[in-house]
Amino acid sequence: MFNINIDNPSGLEIINITNRQLGIELEIIASFGAVINRFVVNDSPFSFITGYADHKDLVDNHPFFSRSAKLFPFPNRLAHGQYTFAGESYQLPANFPWSDHAVHGLLYNQAFLIKETQVDENHARVTLQFDSKHLDAPGYPFPFCLEVIFVLNTTGLLQCETHIVNTGESALPFGDAWHPYFNLGVDRSQFTLSMSPCHEWLHDDDLPSGEKQTFSQFVSPSTLEGVEFNHCFEFDDLESGLIELKRLDGKAQLLYAQQSSYPFVQLYTPNSEASIAVEPMTCPANAFNNEIGLLVLEPGQSSTFQWQCQAIYTG
Questions:
Q1: Does the predicted model carry a pTM greater than 0.85?
Q2: What is the domain count for the chain?
């Protein structure tokens, strides 16, 4: 049986989903970007999601990591925070100390409301909500309501769904994404990556150049030893955007999939840790300007996006 406990240590509202019989634990930080902070299955001695140790680690030490946070209304970078939509020009701040661009949207550090929780023998479900009336962003004056639904089952399958509604009176431009950092408890050189056939978008100064090329290096499982990623890919078949991470010793693997509503994925290998970010995106960087994958909702319209991952640990 699943259980849900809500705690508030040091001012962070944290949701803990557990199934003690199956050794499953999922931790979500509702009050800071809807961050997925911990994911354990079969009592694995590590978390399949790389998270934060505590309040200080997240809020004071690494508030800009955006590990496993919700990214909206744009992922990645927006060139110098500037864009034009429907004949009007807008300016967002360069919000990260290491970049001249606007980075990771506007919700990566925002507090989400816990709307609903449900549990039974086979599933746990949590719905979080964010209303733009709580957002101080003059450079993005487009009202919206966003819900995030997490569903976890007894097999270690985690589904993450986002539902967006335009609550304003004019068209709303946006891109949607997540920023999960995955970990298999060993160095990246000790596990393989495989992914569906795709194209790599070439980039210049972390922004798409407008050109893409076939990418097939990981169609078959290959190790990540010596591989450095900070690249955007577009799946050739949007119905089968699959990625698999598997330890060489066979003790752990992660099966990842994103629905066709997320055509793009960003892979990133941080230098400071053994994780790999696998980021489902509706658009690449700078979509408000290059319009690659840019989405628009008319008043009252809504859209839904989903990705999922299944964690497997055999010990």
A1: yes
A2: 1
